[in-house]
Structure formats: structure tokens, C-alpha cells
Amino acid sequence: MSTAHKIAPDSPQFSLFDDLPGKEGRIVRTAVHSGRRFVTIDPRSIFIGTTRLEDHIKQAGQTSVFIVADLLDSQDFQAFEARYAATGRAPYSPRLMLGLILYGIMQGIHSLRDLQRLARMDLGCMWVAGGISPAHGIIGRFIVLHAESLTKDFFESLTAQILKATGSRSNRLAGDGTVIEAACSHYNLLKADALKERADAARRHLDANRADDCAKHEVQSLTECERIFEQRVQARKRSGRKTDTLALSAVEPEAIVQRQKRSRGTAPSYKPSVLANENRIVTAMALHPSSETKVIGAMLDQSARVTGSQPEELLLDAGYFDDSVIAATLERDVSLFCPEGQEPGVSKKSKVFHKSEFLYDAAEDTYRCPAGHTMLLLKVSGGTEKKRAFRSYGTSACGNCAVRSQCTKGAKRKIERHPEDEQRDALRQVMQQRQVRSLFSQRQAMVEPVFSHLRGRQNLNRFRRRGLRAVKREFALHVIAYNLARAVALLKRISPLFAALFGPLNAAIRLLCRHMSQLHAAIPAISTYRLISLGMRF
């Protein structure tokens, strides 16, 4: 009688002399279009002890990772694969690398070393990223290599898929922006004299040490700082603002020193902006050093590429009451709903009535002031290179006016009307309608939670990369991860409904497949039926 121990066929134990489960899942795949080879792993071959990772995640109820993986699997990665050399060691599959990066950002992790650790420790990350464990340097090089795709094509493609999967409409969009601090200290800012002194000292050091590569790099960096500083000085002079307070950071010169929204102080920072639909899915994003209004046209165009058409309505807060925004929406036939920044009444800044309190009569070509006096046309001025064309209006009734102290500090109050004021007046009239005000009240709930999620859940309270290009890349990754999180939240709401509708039917199909081998052989896909677009698994 043999004393060898035999394992029962249905035993969950594995022989000590057999290969560990899951080894067969790691393969080197050849891309169909490019012919390049990539390391890819089937997460269904990964085991946790004697339990498949897929079953372990289902038992834990963490089905969000299935939705994320299905959405990423639906994307075309040809553009990513084409950037790799055809020879040499096979790199990790771009699909798995993106799964690791985006899943980590969804958890509030964006340090490369923390992502490296996450790949080895988190079971959900193992499913989304196929169990790969790249070093932090490989992750960083991947992000830099594919910066162009991440900030445009991949974002647009994945967002379009998320809109389709969730059934979200984008006829009405809301926009907003914020200020996020740059990766530099606000204690080491340089003004004009300090910047010139440091640059001169660096040049003298380079003259004495021509072979010093570090000195060459510092001179180049400070020369670029001087160029950027001069551009900002000229811009301030053109707008009539003071230049003596202008400063920048030598290590992050592209960032603008501006007031922070969450504190009273100022710091070098950038202004990211988004457009979101009624389900709070971001359909367009942009990042500018200092302006939220200059990017509206580009964001509308990006949203049109994602959704297939321009939105019918755009809701923006008072900070966007700007001529460039009005022109961008008119050019694209988008209905703009945006209140004026100045509330009716006396201006808090100048202590006098704001221009919006003076009503223009187009038929008579006159203004009516807050006191009821008629203001006649006094002067017509043509435009020059430095000043816009305008028409000036005034009245002789200011001397005996009872509210003169609230209207002007001079002898008379004059109103200048510019060509774009006609569009501004039309927008003011639109915003006075009750239905429009009711519709505009939806803006806050549509878009402001986006930045709340980015700050609170994804820890985007400060950029970790330096330079405008790197910051744009970092913000794009955060927005893509945010959209994935929104897709998970929305699809989890839809799943119970579809489970109730299709669950009994699916159970009947499984029963038939179990007892009818011929039917199972003919239609094997039915036994594993799932709605990928809804992120569901039955």
C-alpha cells in the first residue's frame, strides 16, 4: 500500500512541488498594429492564497475596481504603444501602467514612490494594474513620455466613453476655476532688483568658471526668469497697474504670485479650470498661469470634441463676466448665463454707483442715471492702438443732485460706452429673467464639487511638479482620475436597477447553460454575460 499523500480533486490545497497559481498569466504580448512587444498580465490569474483575486474582491464587495478596469479596457492604446522602440526589453503594457497611476490618484496618492508601494500592497490596484510592480523611475518616465496623449487625446476618449456608459447629457455645462499653489516657497520670491543682482552674480561666477555646468544651467535659468519678469512688467504697464510689487520665484518662474482662495495671503500658483455637466463629469479642462476667462473658448472646443456638439447653455459665475467670454460663446452659438460681478448699488471699491446702474436707451441714444436724470451724448472718440473707441455721456444736473456723493467725486459723472457694452447690456437683461435665475442656481451644485473632490479626496491642494507643462500634465491626470471616480459613483447607482431587470433572466440562462451542454458550446458567452458599458458583472 502506497503511503504517498494524494490531494482530492476538489481540494483547495496546492502541491508543494507544483508551480504557484497565476504564473501562467504573465505573458509578453505583441501589439497588432505596431508589432512592439509588451509585458501584460491577466489579473484573473492572480491568487491570494488559494483564492482567485477576482473572487476575493467580489467577496469584499469592492466592485469599483471592475468598473475602472472595464472603462480602461475599452480604450485604444495604439498611440501609447507607438512611442516605444521595436527592439530591446519588452516594457509594461501602457494599459496596465495607466491603471496603476490613475487608480493611485483616485486614492489620493501621486508620489511616484507611493505608487510603487501601492502596486505591491493594494489588492484593488493589483486588479486594475494586472499585478505589475514597476519602479518609481519607470512610472515617472511613462508619464513624461505620454504627456501629449494624457492631456488631450486619452482624456477626451475616456471621457466620451464615460458619458456613453453613464448615459450623461452635456447640453448644459457649468464652468469654474480655482487657484492652486505651485511647488515652490512663497518666502523666497524675487523682485526686480533682487533678480538682477542674483543674475549678475551668476554671470560673474560663470565667467570665472567656464567649465562649470551647474553655473551654466543657473545662468540660463535666471536669464529665462528675467525674460518672464520683463514680459509681466510690460503687461502691467499696458493695463495701468503698478509694477513695484511684482515678484516671481526663481525655481518656478511660470507661476504667478496671486491671492489664494483658501487663505488671505498670496503665493506663486496656477489657475486650473473645468467644464462639467449635470452629472458632474468634466467634459473639458484647462490650466492657465493667471486667467480663468482666456481658456473658455478652448474648453468649449474640447467639450465639443468629447460630446460631439457644442453645449446649448453655459453657466458661469460672476468672475467670467468678461468681453472675451461673451465673444467666445457668441461665436459658438452657446447661450451664456453669467451674472455681472458688481452687485447693484454703490461700488464697494470706488464708493460710487457702478456703471451697470446707468440704464442705456438705444432708441434715444441716452443714459438714465440712478437719480433719474437723462445723460446726453457729449463726445465720440475713435479707437487707437492703446485705447478702445467710446462714446461719452453726461448731464448738467449733477450740481444739485441729492445723491451726488454716491455717484461721483468730481464735478460731473460721465459714462463711457464701448462697442462691447451692447453685448453686456443684453446679458444683463437675460440674467434678470426669473427662469434664467432659477436655471443658474444649478451651477454651484454642478461644478463646485469637482474641485472639492480634487482637493479633499485626491489631495490636490498643491502641485507637486514644476513648470507649466508638467503642471498641466499633473492636472490632467487628476481630472481623468476624477472622471473615473464619477463613473464609479454613477454606475453603482444604475447597477441595482439593471440587476433587478436582468438578474432573473441571467439566472435562467445560467441554468440552461449548466444542463444543456450543446447550448453552452454554441453560445458560451451567454454564461458569462455582463454589461460592460454599465460596469456590471452577473
From TrEMBL:
* Domain Transposase InsH N-terminal per the UniProt entry, residue ranges: 64-142
Enumerate the spans annotated as Transposase DDE domain.
369-486
Pfam families under this entry?
DDE_Tnp_1_6, DUF772
Name the record gives this protein: IS1182 family transposase
Q: Which PANTHER family match?
A: TRANSPOSASE, TRANSPOSASE DDE DOMAIN-CONTAINING PROTEIN
Q: Which InterPro entries match?
A: IS1182_transpos, Tnp_DDE_dom, Transposase_InsH_N
